[in-house]
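Below is how a single chain appears once it has passed through the pipeline. First comes the sequence as given, then the structure the pipeline wrote out for it. We keep one example in the README because the format questions we get most often are answered faster by looking than by reading.
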Amino acid sequence: MLNPDLTNDAARFWKRRDNKQFLQILGTITALCGNPRPHDSIAMGDVNSHFRVDIGEFRIIYCFDKTTLYITVIGNRNDKDAYKEFDRK
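Resulting structure:
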């Protein structure tokens, strides 16, 4: 099982959600720690260094190594803000 590591921006976005959304994102992060490549994850770019997964109205952009799941961005799914924030990092 991987250890989650969130950026400050991702943690801040996540903590501002209501209880239902917070738990929805928590469940997905927990599942990603157990299986970082679920069937609905999509590789971003040619290198496959980052992946994205959608949960309800949110999108998580992440990468991982042998011990850690790095959550780079958690953002709204219906706009391009998550991708814009990812490009800034």
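The longest strand covers residues 68-76.

See the next section for the split statistics.
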